[in-house]
Amino acid sequence: MFAYSDHEFFFKDSFVRLAFEKDASGNIAALVISRPNGAKERATRTIEPLPSAPVEIKVAPDLLRRYVGDYQLSPGFVLTVTLEGEQLMSQATGQQKVAIFPASDSEFFLKVVNAQISFITDASGHVEKLILHQGGRDTPGPKVK
Where are the domains of the chain? Predict the structure, then answer.
């Protein structure tokens, strides 16, 4: 990262720019990421502590088997959940297969990216859908297979 002012930076061989915004007192209040297409993302500075990392628990293989299936997140985009031994795996259309880890009987997390998966069941315990929590979005995916 290279500075081109006291609060603006760029990356070599990239058109992405970073700018730190200051408040009236001169303290850093936000980071603005400017992309070549004109899009800007603003992240407000906070003093809140980071959330603690999820803790992996042990879940019975019979319970894990209920989650196996295909979940449609959008047309042409499916999250396939499989069980390999005692490890639940997920693979999104066009992406590599990754392990998902239980934080509870129905809440799982990924270690390769900041994402979580909630499995939703009906009153009889049948899995109806999952919800992918990633990037500030909650994307439901009904179980289609």
Answer: 2-44, 61-142
- Per-residue pLDDT of 72-123, as tens digits, reads 999 999 999 999 999 999 999 999 999 999 999 999 999 999 999 999 999 9
Tell me the two tokens of residue 6.
Answer: 């006291």
Per this entry, what is the length of the chain?
145
Which residues lie closer than 8 Å to 113 by C-beta, 6 or more apart?
Answer: 134
Let me know: does 131 contact 85? Beta carbons within 8 Å: no
Tally the C-alpha atoms within 13 A of residue 20's C-alpha that lie toward its C-beta.
12
Report yes or no: 81 and 98 within 8 Å, Cβ to Cβ.
no
Q: Which fold has domain 61-142?
A: Lipocalin (2.40.128)
Give residue 93's region: left, alpha or beta (phi > 0; psi -120 to 50): beta
φ, ψ dihedrals at 79, nearest 5°: -105, 115
85: left (phi over 0), alpha (psi -120 to 50) or beta: left
